UniProtKB/TrEMBL annotation:
Residues 7-406 form the Enolpyruvate transferase domain. Phosphoenolpyruvate binds at residues 22-23. It comes from Desulfoglaeba alkanexedens ALDC. The active site is at residue 117. PANTHER family: UDP-N-ACETYLGLUCOSAMINE 1-CARBOXYVINYLTRANSFERASE. This is UDP-N-acetylglucosamine 1-carboxyvinyltransferase. NCBIfam families: murA, PRK09369.1. UDP-N-acetyl-alpha-D-glucosamine binds at residues 93, 305, 327.
Length: 418
């Protein structure tokens, strides 16, 4: 198992190029199950979760590989086994995204309950209720979801709470259902819109993307296509905060600043200079950090996937900030590790009270989930001394070449064996 050793206190300077969005690429790969043939995806990041999804699709009979230009090609012509076993999905929650496409195309699916980061319950009951509304018979047995349907039929599905993967799963299933499906209280995230764009290019009929009501008119068949994955907005935000927490200046290229407006506004409120020009973002923090409050909320609100990183920044803020987590009930596990670096953080239910300190000091810390890992790296970049971040396999699930990209802009960071 690897760890990162970070010698902090160095302002980051230079350019970073953003990779494709993991949270967009995974549902796009699942969508390949909807139509037999060669699906071509550009800008897919090289990540552990992507490789896990490739292995999962291969288990079902698909072939996949990279072309010389980096294009990921998935051929689902020979998919014959609509099953996702526990051994392949235990580390990745996104595996549940194959459930809807498999039922829609094959009329049946057997999918293990998913794993992933330990940040809360994240039940898939909304996926199951939605499929049942579409006419599927769903059973839970020994850790597996088994679903079957002769033909899915359009209906109205109202989500009790906003769910990104639930919206994506049912949008894919409804694309091949008979009649019209209306998804109410649907997720509005850019990754949902990216999936809808690819489904539309495959022949799906989808309206209302980006609003709380998505309307899908089912078609009899879909065809494979070619698609470019959107830039990763969470990676973009993480590097923006890396510039801020180190008092540096970064030019962040090939990104979508419009997908990160809420985070950028909070950065500006904290005294950070933010300049946007097309697909480029420049972030500079020359005058320290002011404390600001944050509440996470579904898109277009402040993303829960940026909460831990923003908390790291607030540990060095002038004043006190209150960070409230309204999405997941167990997403403050990074607090105890940030305290080891000298942060002054108190917990009150779903809120963290962060009192800024003059400096952070290096210490050994342990990552508990993907975004917590990123917050510890950010804190380590600012801390005096050498911070050791262990259990970084979480980072490798969601950030492409993070240590390499940071070295290119002046960070002193290396990967070692535990």
């Amino acid at each position: 198992m690897d760890k990162l050793v970070i010698e902090g206190g160095r302002p980051l300077e230079g350019e970073v190029v953003i990779s494709g969005a993991k949270n967009s690429a995974l549902p796009l790969m699942a969508a390949s199950l909807l139509a037999p043939g060669r699906h071509r995806y550009q800008n897919v990041p090289e990540l552990r979760d992507i490789r896990t999804m490739e292995r999962l699709l291969a288990h079902m009979g698909a072939d996949s590989g990279r072309e010389n230009d980096g294009m990921l090609v998935i051929d689902t012509s020979r998919v014959h086994l609509p099953e996702a076993p526990y051994e392949l999905v235990k580390t990745m929650r996104a595996s549940v995204l194959v459930l809807g496409p498999l039922v829609a195309r094959f009329g049946r699916a057997r999918v293990s309950l998913p794993g992933g980061c330990a940040i809360g319950a994240r039940p898939i009951n909304l996926h199951i209720k939605g499929l049942e509304r579409l006419g599927a018979v769903v059973e839970l047995d020994q850790g597996y979801v088994t679903a079957s349907a002769e033909k899915l039929r359009g209906t109205t599905v109202t989500f009790d709470v906003v769910t990104v993967t639930g919206t994506e799963n049912l949008m894919m299933a409804a694309s091949l259902a008979e009649g019209r499906t209306i998804l109410e209280n649907a997720a509005r995230e850019p990754e949902v819109a990216d999936l809808a764009a690819y489904l539309t290019s495959m022949g799906a009929r989808i309206q209302g993307v980006g609003t709380p009501e998505i309307v899908i008119d089912g078609v009899s068949e879909l065809r494979p296509g070619t698609h470019t994955v959107i830039p990763d907005r969470i990676e973009t935000g993480t590097y923006a905060l890396a510039a801020a927490i180190t008092g540096g200046r970064l030019k962040i290229r090939r990104c979508r600043p419009d997908h990160l407006e809420t985070v950028l506004r909070k950065l500006e409120a904290a005294g950070v200079t933010v300049q946007k020009a097309g697909d480029t973002l420049e972030v500079e923090a020359a005058n320290g950090i002011k404390s600001v409050d944050v509440k996470t909320w579904p898109y277009p609100g402040f993303p829960t996937d940026m909460q831990a990183q923003f908390m790291a920044l607030m540990t060095l803020g002038r004043g006190t900030s209150v960070i409230t987590e309204q999405i997941f009930e167990n997403r403050f596990m990074h607090v105890s590790e940030l305290r080891r670096l000298g942060a002054d953080i108190g917990l009150d239910g779903r809120s963290a009270v962060v009192r800024g300190v003059p400096r952070l000091s290096a210490a050994p810390v342990m990552a508990t989930d993907l975004r917590a890992s990123a917050s510890l790296v950010l804190a380590g970049l600012a801390a005096t001394g050498a911070t050791h971040v262990s259990r970084i396999y979480h980072l490798d699930r969601g950030y492409e070449r993070l240590d390499q990209k940071l070295r290119q802009v002046g960070a002193k960071i290396r990967r070692e064996k535990e």
